[in-house]
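Q: I'm writing up a methods section and want to include an example of the input and output format. Could you take the sequence below and give the corresponding predicted structure tokens, formatted cleanly so I can copy it straight into the document?
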Amino acid sequence: MSLSQTFSQHKPVRHIVADQLRAAIQQGQLKPGEWLRQERLAQELGVSQMPIREALKELAADGMIEYLPFRGVRVMEYSADDVEDLYAHRSFLEGHAAFNAAQQITPEEISTLKDLQAQMKKRLRPRHIAEYRELNRQFHETISTASRRAYLIRALNQMWIVFPTMLLSNFADTMGQPLPNRDRRDPAEHDAIIAALENRNSAQAEQLVRQHIESAGKQLINAIKARRLAPKPIFRRNPNASSTRFDYGRRRT
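A: Here is the clean output for your methods example:
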């Protein structure tokens, strides 16, 4: 979607710019560690530097970019330690959400989980990885929403801004394909989680969700530490160009 198309939605320009930059980061057009220069971004998006500046503040609050004193702004880059911390937080928080969801979840939400699971089972091949990850995000968010714990839901939604697309794009082997063996383990683990929620078994739901997340985290962390995953350049630079161009959907005048 271009900026000119979004102006008709009466949305503040800074939010439109933030959406464009957020999508560029999540889709890999802006790679981990990439420096974001306000003047260049303004030229690319066809806006002044003011909405760019405000949009960058929004993305910093989301944890997608970071400000470095006297250097500028860059897209967040994740290390093995960061991955370990993120999965540890997810395991605890989502486990707690599942514990509460088991007592609060509605038949409609159980039906939603089953429908999402059925769709995921049809998208296990690498070529469907983007669709699978979006469905998986909806699956986990449905469980957290069913907890009816407002603060917990907000915390998890914040975490899911960078997970999984942005996080996994840091490593070559996970950018366009599932984690090793997860395509075989995820369906069975999801089925077990749904059953525990449907049976109103809080303790089992919490345990299964925590094991599910911890297992995926360990596989990724072990792969990183074994150096099986190398940093992946998201796009190729034109050696004859003075700067890299990004297709954000430039505003036409």
